[in-house]
């Protein structure tokens, strides 16, 4: 009995010891986990404090940036007022109260200071003597410091700056944002000159152009024609087919259904019409002007020999057509006294009749080898094309511009494209299928 009791006590003692050991092991395990938890908690607390410090620091920076933005906005508004005041004073200085300006001349610039200098020096060579008639402006799009510095270095010029920080969204994939910005800049600059400064006419140049000696005389004479003939939308100094081999007579002017651009003048009433609908989502503003719905059967005056030369190989258009069409352009070097010239022949009815006679009197050539035949002729010739593809084929044979816009070939009048044959008196007329009827011959 005593032995059995002893065994039970030993078993109980063993069980007690086992339980105590298990409890100790469990307590030790939980103590380790508790220590790890406390360590993790301390790390989280440290990280949280670090994050709080970072957030606090960022909040301080945000507050500082907001305060800086407020100051910058105030400074910008103040500078804008100063610029407008300086611009107003500059305009008052440039405009002689005793002389009514023929037209303001604006050079559209952005980020090419070297091009701008070449353009301005070309203009000042001939503008200085007629400065009161043609006050000169530079309108810069953006904040390029070198362009601004260059523009402000000319005391004879009023500086304008177009700042537009809104993001540009193109309508179609692959389009260049630059062209949208250019269109917005044009609208802003022309609104400034026509509406704010109340000029009757404006001549638009770009920062990659040189001008001819009679540039200002040409536009002064053309201004009277532009004012009196509402069938003329604008006057240009440019001929797309003005390459040396295609021109002869520096006095010859033409009406055209195709807007040439590249040095052109328009009136305030025309701008008031165009400004509200000026394109925001049309890639090229000049192609928009070429739409029939925009020019509405009005025409453009262009010279045979260009009064501007475009040297802009590098720019938004990335040198498109430069080597083939722009570099060979002939810039007029003869000073024509345009105010002594009778330009009444450019009035709509007179020009239509005379141009029709010239076309009808030219020797007609037919067949696929008509261009080859033209080389052997010693008189004006006309060659009919049937459609755009046919025109492009013939134009390619002579080397003139093949491009059409909204159904109109470059330089065309009533579908007729005229150019000189190898710098001679001879004219080549490329005549559309409906041209003779439109010319009433």
UniProtKB/TrEMBL annotation:
Its main location: Golgi. It catalyses: N(4)-(alpha-D-Man-(1->3)-[alpha-D-Man-(1->3)-[alpha-D-Man-(1->6)]-alpha-D-Man-(1->6)]-beta-D-Man-(1->4)-beta-D-GlcNAc-(1->4)-beta-D-GlcNAc)-L-asparaginyl-[protein] (N-glucan mannose isomer 5A1,2) + UDP-N-acetyl-alpha-D-glucosamine = N(4)-{beta-D-GlcNAc-(1->2)-alpha-D-Man-(1->3)-[alpha-D-Man-(1->3)-[alpha-D-Man-(1->6)]-alpha-D-Man-(1->6)]-beta-D-Man-(1->4)-beta-D-GlcNAc-(1->4)-beta-D-GlcNAc}-L-asparaginyl-[protein] + UDP + H(+). Initiates complex N-linked carbohydrate formation. Essential for the conversion of high-mannose to hybrid and complex N-glycans. Pathway: Protein modification; protein glycosylation. Its cofactor is Mn(2+). InterPro entries: Glyco_trans_13 (IPR004139), Glycosyltransferase_13 (IPR052261), Nucleotide-diphossugar_trans (IPR029044). It is an enzyme of class 2 (transferase). Gene3D superfamilies: N-Acetylglucosaminyltransferase I, Domain 2, Spore Coat Polysaccharide Biosynthesis Protein SpsA, Chain A. It is found in: Golgi apparatus membrane. It holds the Pfam family GNT-I. This is Alpha-1,3-mannosyl-glycoprotein 2-beta-N-acetylglucosaminyltransferase. The cofactor is mostly bound to the substrate. One of its GO terms (molecular function) is manganese ion binding. The keyword Glycosyltransferase applies. Belongs to the glycosyltransferase 13 family. Its EC number is 2.4.1.101. Keywords: Glycosyltransferase, Golgi apparatus, Manganese, Membrane, Metal-binding, Signal-anchor, Transferase, Transmembrane, Transmembrane helix. One of its GO terms (cellular component) is Golgi membrane. The keyword Methyltransferase does not apply. It is a single-pass type II membrane protein.
């Amino acid at each position: 009995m005593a032995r059995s009791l002893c065994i039970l006590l030993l078993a109980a003692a063993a069980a007690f010891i086992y339980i105590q050991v298990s409890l100790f092991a469990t307590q030790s395990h939980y103590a380790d986990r508790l220590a790890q938890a406390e360590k993790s908690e301390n790390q989280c607390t440290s990280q949280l404090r670090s994050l709080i410090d970072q957030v606090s620091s960022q909040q301080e920076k945000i507050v500082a940036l907001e305060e800086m933005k407020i100051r910058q906005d105030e400074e910008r508004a103040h500078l804008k007022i100063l610029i407008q005041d300086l611009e107003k004073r500059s305009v008052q200085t440039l405009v002689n109260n005793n002389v009514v300006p023929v037209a303001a001349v604006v050079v559209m610039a952005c980020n090419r200071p070297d091009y701008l200098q070449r353009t301005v020096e070309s203009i000042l060579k001939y503008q200085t003597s007629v400065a009161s008639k043609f006050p000169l402006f530079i309108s810069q799009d953006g904040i390029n410091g070198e362009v601004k510095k260059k523009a402000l270095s000319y005391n004879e010029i009023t500086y304008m700056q177009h700042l537009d920080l809104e993001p540009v969204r193109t309508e179609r994939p692959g389009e260049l944002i630059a062209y949208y910005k250019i269109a917005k800049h044009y609208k802003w600059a022309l609104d400034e000159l026509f509406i704010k400064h109340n000029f009757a006419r404006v001549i638009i140049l770009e920062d990659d152009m040189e001008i001819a000696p009679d540039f200002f005389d040409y536009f002064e004479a053309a201004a009277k024609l532009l004012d009196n003939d509402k069938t003329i939308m604008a006057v240009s100094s440019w001929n797309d087919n003005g390459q040396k081999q295609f021109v002869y007579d520096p006095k010859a002017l033409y009406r055209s259904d195709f807007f040439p651009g590249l040095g052109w003048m328009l009136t305030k009433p025309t701008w008031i019409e165009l400004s509200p609908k000026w394109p925001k989502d049309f890639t090229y503003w000049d192609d928009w002007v070429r739409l029939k719905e925009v020019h509405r059967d009005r025409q453009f005056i262009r010279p045979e020999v260009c009064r501007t030369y475009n040297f802009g190989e590098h720019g938004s258009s990335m040198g498109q057509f430069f080597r083939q069409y722009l570099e060979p352009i002939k810039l007029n070097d003869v000073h024509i006294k345009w105010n002594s010239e009778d330009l009444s022949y450019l009035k709509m009815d007179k020009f239509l009749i005379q141009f029709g006679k010239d076309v009808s009197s030219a020797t007609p050539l037919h067949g696929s080898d008509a261009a080859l035949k033209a080389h052997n002729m010693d008189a004006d010739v006309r060659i009919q094309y049937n459609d755009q593809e046919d025109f492009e084929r013939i134009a390619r044979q002579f080397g003139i511009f093949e491009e059409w816009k909204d159904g109109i070939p470059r330089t065309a009048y009533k579908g007729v494209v005229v150019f000189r044959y190898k710098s001679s008196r001879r004219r080549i007329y490329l005549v559309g299928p409906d041209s003779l009827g439109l010319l009433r011959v």
